[in-house]
Each structure stands twice: as structure tokens, then as C-alpha cells.
Amino acid sequence: MENRGITRDHAPQRLDWVDVARGIGIIAVVVGHVWTRGSLRDAMYSFHMPLFFLLSGMLSRPHSVGAFTRRQLLGQMRPYAIFLALLILADQFIEPARGHVPIFHQWPGDLLPILLGGYWLRGPYTIFWFVPCLMMARILFNLALNRWPDPRDPQWLVLMSGLLVLAEGLGWMTEVSPLGLLSVPMAMILLWVGALWPRLRWRNLWIAPLGLLALAGLAGWLPTLNMKAGDYGWPLLSIGSGIATSLLLFRLSARIAPLAAPLAAIGRASLVIMYLHVAIIHYGTPYLAKPWLFALALLAPFALWHLIRLSPRLSRWML
């Protein structure tokens, strides 16, 4: 699972298993948003968000702080703004056609909650907390990586302990989260675990404890996660279960990558699927059975991703 061919100054080569893992993760996200109650939903919520933060941490290396910050702000917030604006515009037509008032219809007053994002974006926009949260966590994590390039440095344990207390305390006090920033402390912990993991030599004896911890979350024996609201279930155990499930899925992804081209393709389209699937579910729920809704929410954004890739200009702006 090591990331080979990665240096401080060069982008990593594409790793097929990473795309497979992203594919599994985004399918879990869509499933959890289609089946919104019950054991299946709880199983998906036990790991699907930690998986993406862990993957990002695995691919992290120290970069120039200024250049990395600029790339993150431009590369992440530009597609964020474009997809959000397109969905808000579409809602102005879709909701009246369904006999409803558009979600945002009090202008210019509604500009403030739109700009605040995170907690204030619900319904078809509910997933938009994730990208700014990941972006800010990566910027701050890169700052720390420049100070301590090796995640095994003892100073990381001090920093992560403080962030854990901060994450749990903020989550206990409020769920108000402008741009998803409430979840940044826990996101940084997950980035660190992801960066640390490839530096640990795998031992097969880890399968049993990781499997039991993963099972506790997947089976609903532990309170599940809602990272957007800063709800991390039982301290350490619930988030630990999500980490365990994700790490085992990474091992599985590495094993099946040569045979899992469709999953890898879905993983490469995960950003577009992330942005659009909730809107499809929101508007389609009254009219479609859940299996059809799941297929549409996964495959329609996947098809749009292919169309976007046909245009270098659209790819640069939207991907």
C-alpha cells in the first residue's frame, strides 16, 4: 500500500487501488443517502466519510505552504462554486414545476446562508460541507507536515491529542458549521492516520482486531458517525471503527484493483458524483423506487463526468 514514485515536488502517479477505494467509498455515500434509515444506512455512515479523509492523508506530502494553499483554494473552491451555483439555478425551475417554492427564494437575503455553506446548506446541497472541510484540513495539515515531515514524529501525538479534545468538544457544543469547518479538527486527525498508515509494516495479526472494530460499526453496535454535524459517536470507538473499516477496504482494494476497472472509473468520477447525487435523490425520491434512485444518483453524474472530460476547459474549471 505504499505510494511509490512520490516526491516532495512532484504529484503522485495515479494508483489504481486508490481509485477503487474511492469507488467503494462514493457508492457507500450514495447508498447512505438513498436508504436514509435502518441498518444499511448506519453501516454506510460508520465509515464512508473517514475513508475519503484517510485516502487524502495517504497521498499527502509536504509542499510549499503558499503554493499549496493557492492551489487548494483555486482547485477546490472553483468547482465547489460552479456546482453549487448550477444546482441553485436548477432548483429555481425544478421546485416550481413540482408545485413547491425554491429552497432559496428570498433574494438577496439568501446569499448569506449560501456563502456560509456547511450547516446552512441542506436538502439537495447537503453534501457541500465536505469539500471546504477537506480543503481547509489539508491546508492546515500541510503546515504541520512542513514542520514535522514524518508522521511518526512524537510531536504529532501531542498535536493530535489536542485536536481530538477540540473535535469532541466542538461537536458536543454545537452543530453549526460554516463551510463545514466544524469538522476540520477530526478531519486533520484522519489525514494524519492516513499519512501514518503506509509507514507501518502490515502484519496479518492486525486483521482480527481491525475486523472486530470494523464489525462493531458496520453491525450498529456503536453509535454511528455524522461528521457534518460534528457527531463522532462514542469517543475513539466510533471513529476508530470507521478507520478500521476503511483500512481493511484499502487492503481489499489493492487486491482487487486489477479486476475492478468499473469501480476505479467510478472512483475517478467521485467528485462529480459527490456534488450531484444528493440533488438527484432529493428531486427523484417521490417518483422512483430506491434501487432505481440509487442507480440514477450514481450513473447520471458518472455520465456527466465523462461529458465534462471531453472539454479541456470544462475539465479545468469543474474537475
Quick rundown:
The chain is an all-alpha fold.
Shape type: globular
Largest sheet: none
The structural class is: mainly alpha
Arithmetic mean of pLDDT: 94
Estimated share of beta-strand residues: under 5%
What value does the Rg take, in angstroms?
A: 19 Å
| Low-confidence region ranges | 1-13
In DSSP terms, counting alpha (H) and pi (I) runs of 4 or more, how many helices? Answer: 14
Counting DSSP E segments of at least 2 residues, the number of strands comes to 0
Note the run of SSEs as H and E.
HHHHHHHHHHHHHH
Query: What is the CA-CA span between the terminal residues?
Result: 26 Å
Helix fraction by DSSP (H/I, runs of at least 4): 55-70%
Structure explained in plain terms:
- This protein is mainly alpha-helical and 319 residues long.
- Helices cover 66% and strands 0% of the residues.
- The model is unreliable at 1-13 (pLDDT under 50).
Helices, strands, pairings?
Blueprint (H helix, E strand, L loop, with lengths): L15 H19 L4 H7 L2 H11 L6 H33 L13 H6 L13 H18 L6 H20 L10 H13 L10 H12 L18 H20 L4 H8 L1 H15 L5 H20 L2 H7 L1
